[in-house]
Amino acid sequence: MKTRVLLTGATGTVGYNTLLNLINQKNLDITVFDLKTPHARKKLKPFKDRVNIIWGDISNKDHLIPATVDQDIVLHLAAIIPPAADNYPPLAYKVNVLGTKNLVDLLEILSPNAHIIHASSVAVYGDRIKNPWIKTTDPVQESPGDIYARTKIIAEKLITSSRLTWTIFRLNAVFGIGNHKISKLLFHMPLSTPIEIITPQDAGRAFAYAINHLDKLGGRIFNLAGGEKCRIIYKDFLERSFELFGLGKLNFPPDAFARQNFHCGYYVDSHELIDILNFNQDTIETYFEKVAKGISPMQRLFTRMFHRIIKASLLKKSEPLRALKKKDSRLIRHFFGNHNNLNSINTSG
User: Fold this and answer.
1) Fewer C-beta within 10 Å: the chain N or C terminus?
2) Rounded to an integer, what is the distance from CA 28 to the centroid of its chain?
3) d(Cα 123, Cα 67) in Å, to the nearest integer?
4) What does the pLDDT average to over 171-186?
């Protein structure tokens, strides 16, 4: 008898890699629930004969009913993530909170014996600049104004207070080829932030492999990241990235970057999930190797030729720097706290 698995958010970066790993496993009856868009239809078309595809809006309980009948395992990855979550808070609540509530409510009725594995985030730990070593027993407290983190904290409570068997994976920084577009978030993270990345490929393996280790996962929260070999300081990460893409030195004004109120850090206990699932194949070095291979010589040449214009355009996205120029005291306190020595350098590099 096949194990029935429901995957939400299959067209997202991690969700898609989860699906790629699920379809390689035997004796699974896979159902995918996703919002019907041209992008989603194109992405799922190759799997239409291998999985059951149910289209719908997760915030509409009626749409979810067909997907939640008699499921054994639910991998819940559907979410609105930053920067969209910051730009459209009502949508973030609609999908991340109401969508999770709808899913839990229906599973309790239609699949009461299901095991749900929920994708949460390092954002729930809030600003950890002063104490960057994170473990799952640390208190959750979103950074001020972090809508995404707030929705994830609420969603976690919905999961843990349910009558279902549950597991929560709190993903750290997910970095992969093409999965991050340049946005204002580039400047929200303080340069001194320690980050422990995980690639979409490793994250997808973790969720897919988890269905074979449910006895070790039930009723537990895990920190999901790549381990010691995936750790780097944000400033170093940007410097290496800029060099690879042909942008030259990271010589933005120091005050272009916030000093507080973001998230990320090193997971003290990321090894616990790695030891159980043995999913990690990437390191920070293999990540940069893949990035380098994905950049064509023409692309790098073009970037080098126009690096000043490109960096000037990027700098315009800096909300911390804009707050200083406009002397917006509220945003200055948000991004810099009580910092009294803000001497920006007027150059775009």
Assistant:
1) N
2) 26
3) 29
4) 80
- Token output for 299: 């692309």
Question: What is the model's pLDDT at position 99?
Answer: 98
Q: Which of 34-48, 145-159, 332-346 has the lowest mean pLDDT?
A: 332-346
Please compute the mean of the pLDDT values over residues 94-107 and round it to a whole number: 98
Residue 130: count of CB within 10 angstroms of its CB: 6
Instruction: Please report which confidence band the pLDDT of residue 348 belongs to, taking 50, 70 and 90 as the band edges.
Output: very low
Compute the distance between CA of residue 333 and CA of residue 311 in angstroms, rounded to an integer. Answer: 26
Q: What is the largest CA-CA distance in the chain?
A: 67
Q: How far apart are CA 84 and CA 80, in angstroms?
A: 6
| Residue-averaged pLDDT of the chain | 94
Helix pair 147-160, 99-110: axis angle to 10 deg:
10
Candidates 262, 196, 201; CA nearest to 224 is 196
CA–CA gap between residue 266 and residue 172 (Å, rounded): 9
Q: Which domains are assigned to the chain?
A: 3-182+194-228 (3.40.50.720)
Distance CA 301, CA 297 (A): 6
Q: What are phi and psi of 115, to 5 degrees?
A: -105, 120
Q: Is the pTM of this model over 0.85?
A: yes
C-alpha to C-alpha distance for 240 and 311, rounded to whole angstroms: 15
The structure tokens 């272009």 sit at: 256
Separation between Cα atoms, residue 275 and residue 289, nearest integer Å: 25
- Taking the C-alpha atoms of residue 206 and residue 169, their distance in angstroms, rounded to an integer, is 9
Query: Could you read off the pLDDT of 278-310 as tens digits, one per residue?
Result: 999 999 999 999 999 999 999 999 999 999 999
